[in-house]
Amino acid sequence: MKLKILLATTLALGMATPALVHAQDAPAPAYAPSTKGLQPTAAADGCELHVWPAERMNSVTTGWLGGGLIEGALNSGKDANNKTLMASALDSPTQLDALQELDLRTLLPLTPGTTIIRHEAPLERKTMNKIKTRRAESTSKCYSELIVADVFYQKAAIYGRSLRTLFMVRQFGNDQTIDKEYKAWGGNGLKLFPPKEGEDAIAALDELVSVYKANFEEFARNARLRLAAK
Questions:
Q1: pTM for the model
Q2: What is the pLDDT along the chain (230 residues), one digit of tens a residue?
Q3: Which candidate, 190, 199, 108, 176, places its Cα nearest to that of 147?
Q4: In sequence order, which residues have a C-beta less than 8 Å from that of residue 85 and are 6 or more positions away?
């Protein structure tokens, strides 16, 4: 009764209807790319790191019969309930946001004055090994690239669930020639993802992002050693 009186009074006075009445019609906020970690931690020195995500996460299941691989296995059968979740989990923006949460300058390593440049559109997978020149239109004399090539959810009969990620780092001099390059997989196990019916989907997605970060940290440790030796 009080709500009816409030609405009637509001209309009579020519005032706007209370916001709570229209809250259900409010559009969802647009996605805003993260800016965390992009600016140098020291005075900019002209160095640039360009970062590209993979297009999306794929799934691979290994079975008992002949060790065969089944692409996209989570999109069928008993895992059909996770189809929507798999389609959006670790999409390109989420991959970039996760990497920006890390201290890329220290992990790779780069100079503190390096500017990190985020590229929203993934590179075509088939071009990653073929094109040997810079993938960004940059004339920086100190230029590097971090490319996420593949992201795989893997379910194995023996080892269980895991996330595997293929990263590439390429370093250039003051030209279009690669000076140093390192490409390798990072992989760690999953306990919560994908969630079963009735389980906490948010916790499962948080775990997925955490393992993605751990995969990169694993890759970066090896990259530092290999690149320093070249």
A1: 0.81
A2: 433 434 343 434 344 433 333 334 456 678 898 899 999 999 999 999 999 999 999 988 776 544 444 444 444 444 555 667 777 899 999 999 999 999 999 999 999 999 999 999 999 999 999 999 999 999 999 999 999 999 999 998 888 999 999 999 999 999 999 999 999 999 999 999 999 889 999 999 999 999 999 999 999 999 999 999 87
A3: 108
A4: 194, 195, 201, 205
Q: How far apart are CA 118 and CA 88, in angstroms?
A: 20
Q: Structure tokens of 229? A: 């030796």
Q: What are phi and psi of 4, to 5 degrees?
A: -65, -40
Give the CB-side neighbour count of residue 168, counting CA atoms within 13 A: 19
**Contact between residue 113 and residue 42 where contact means Cβ atoms under 8 Å apart:** yes
What letter does residue 152 receive in the DSSP assignment?
A: E
Q: Work out the number of other CB atoms within 10 angstroms of the CB of residue 212.
A: 23
Residue type, 222: N
- In the chain, the domains with their CATH numbers are 34-229 (3.40.50)
- H/E element holding 32? none
